[in-house]
Amino acid sequence: MKSSNLIIIKLGGSVVTFKEKPLTPNYDGIEKILGVLNEIKENFKIIIVHGGGSFGHYWSVKYDMHTKPYPYSDLGVSVVHDSMIELNHIITNKFIESKLKPYSIQPSAFVFNSKADPARIHDIVDMTSGNDLIPITFGDIIHTSGNNFSILSGDTIMSMLCTELHPKFSIFTTNVDGLYSDMSKGEIVREIQVDEADIGNILSEGKEKIEHSDSPFDVTGGMKRKMTESIQIANSGTPVYLINGFHPERILDIIHDRHYIGTCIRMRSGS
Ligand code: IPE
């Protein structure tokens, strides 16, 4: 069942930081989205997930840390985690300045050994049922088992939350307009209809389409991971929208069922 007034939004690292400039927040990128959030909070419960951009990814590359569980360097684990807390703090401060009420949740509060705990996820929603708090979580380095840690992408967190909570909309923002069908002409794919069988196909046939936005600082797989997670979410019944976070008014277009620029991934009708 869909939660009719819940919207889950990923603020991509390429929106909240300058991805190519180490440890540099993009205040304009963060601020632009706040006005839209202030508007939609009147009618929707919001959950925010943000990425690592030039904070988490920068240090993950330096310490050679990836999404595979492994006994990575202790210092690397500390530094990556710390950089994500710092970025989260920068973002939540901006939220508070603009009169939004964020409540930070480290992903280790609901992900154990790479699996999401459904009860903890539902607690996040319960926590906000009678107030205006906006839960905000983020990609991070988290413990898996034994001495192992792994990078958990905000995109994976999106699919953990969306497949459990069935929001009305799931929106991924990045620094591009959507999924390109032809990079050179700047053409965007408007809609992709998927079913379970499509994950492998889309990832292999659409290789050139989905690898376009990877940057030198990216340990979680760029557009490719976004597609894998989006297909999971779409298959659970929630449409996924990939839009440009520097044009957050497109979120309003989606909510109000107007024409928008971006890519929608939804379950194939009849499947
Ligand atoms: C990455 O999160 C988190 C770390 C590297 C610690 P994401 O994979 O969601 O980040 P972006 O959105 O691609 O920057």
TrEMBL record:
It holds the Pfam family AA_kinase. Residues 5-244 form the Aspartate/glutamate/uridylate kinase domain. One of its GO terms (biological process) is terpenoid biosynthetic process. ATP binds at residues 10-14, 53, 180-185, 222, 226. It comes from the Archaea. Its EC number is 2.7.4.26. It is an enzyme of class 2 (transferase). One of its GO terms (cellular component) is cytosol. Substrate binds at residues 52, 57, 154. Transmembrane segments: none annotated. The keyword Disulfide bond does not apply. One of its GO terms (molecular function) is ATP binding. InterPro entries: AceGlu_kinase-like_sf (IPR036393), Asp/Glu/Uridylate_kinase (IPR001048), Fosfomycin_R_FomA-type (IPR024192). Keywords: ATP-binding, Isoprene biosynthesis, Kinase, Nucleotide-binding, Transferase. The record marks 19 as: Transition state stabilizer. It catalyses: isopentenyl phosphate + ATP = isopentenyl diphosphate + ADP. PANTHER family: GLUTAMATE 5-KINASE, ISOPENTENYL PHOSPHATE KINASE. Belongs to the isopentenyl phosphate kinase family. This is Isopentenyl phosphate kinase.
